[in-house]
Specification:
Length: 257
């Protein structure tokens, strides 16, 4: 009788299971094709069976990921004690996985946290794929307890505009590539990068439900200039760096004229 194959189980968790965790799940699954690795994703919100956000589908497609068939799954009701690795993008994701779904604390990490820890360790090369990955997780946890660092989050792009979503997707792809390399030795080029927002400038526009970023071509307008947004004239009150991490474009901050 053939014994079942040893498999390494990874679970990504975000808020709605419609953007960050979906891109991470499908990106890592494609990077580990042919390896005994199982990847899934969940969301802390109670929004079952919802499709990915449009930005996730379009940005994923640019990297060759087909996300259209994905449907969200809530974390509530799941039991993760058997997972080999659980990865969240915000502190709340990690806490809820441990408290509500019984995820092992020593195997549950923030995405940025895990990437930084894996870069500092080496795992023996004479192990099977699942054993190597479990060894890496154990070493990462040990390194975490040796030097606690501030928890770095990757913010939810929901409602923040396409440029913010593009930068977030690019960050997720980079994290997945580094995780695949650190755990399984997979070449980072196996994860297609998702390009961050292109050139031009950003407009920071106040809205009734908060704020949003709009991408515009060309140079940023000067302070005192006016711009049209959805038929409304806005005045530029300040110009500064983009609020998006790693984005070198200028951002014009506006208010109603």
């Amino acid at each position: 009788m053939t014994e079942p194959q040893d498999t390494f189980h990874v679970v990504f968790i975000c808020t709605g299971n419609r953007f960050r965790s979906v891109l991470a799940e499908h990106g890592l699954r494609r990077a580990t094709v042919g390896l005994p690795v199982d990847v899934s994703s969940l969301g802390t919100l109670e929004v079952p069976d919802a499709p990915p956000l449009t930005d996730a589908i379009e940005l994923g497609a640019a990297a060759g990921l087909e996300l259209g068939e994905h449907r969200s799954r809530p974390l509530r009701g799941q039991v993760l004690h058997a997972a080999d690795l659980v990865v969240g993008f915000e502190r709340n994701h990690v806490a809820q996985a441990v408290v509500e779904a019984n995820a092992p604390r020593e195997k549950t990490f923030g995405a940025y946290e895990l990437v930084e820890l894996l870069a500092r360790i080496e795992s023996p090369g004479d192990l099977s794929v699942p054993e190597r990955a479990r060894n890496a997780v154990a070493r990462a946890n040990a390194a975490r307890s040796e030097s606690e660092r501030p928890f770095r989050e990757l913010a939810d792009p929901f409602g923040r505009g396409r440029p913010f979503a593009a930068e977030t997707a690019a960050q997720v792809a980079d994290q997945v590539a580094r995780i695949a390399f650190g755990l399984f030795g997979v070449d980072r080029t196996a994860v297609a990068p998702i390009p961050s927002a292109p050139g031009g400038h950003l407009l920071f526009v106040s809205a009734s439900d908060g704020w949003k970023l709009e991408q515009r071509d060309g140079d940023a307008p000067a302070v005192g200039d006016t711009v049209e947004v959805e038929g409304t004239t806005l005045i530029v009150t300040a110009v500064g760096p983009s609020p998006l991490p790693g984005d070198r474009r200028r951002c014009a901050y506006t208010q109603r004229n």
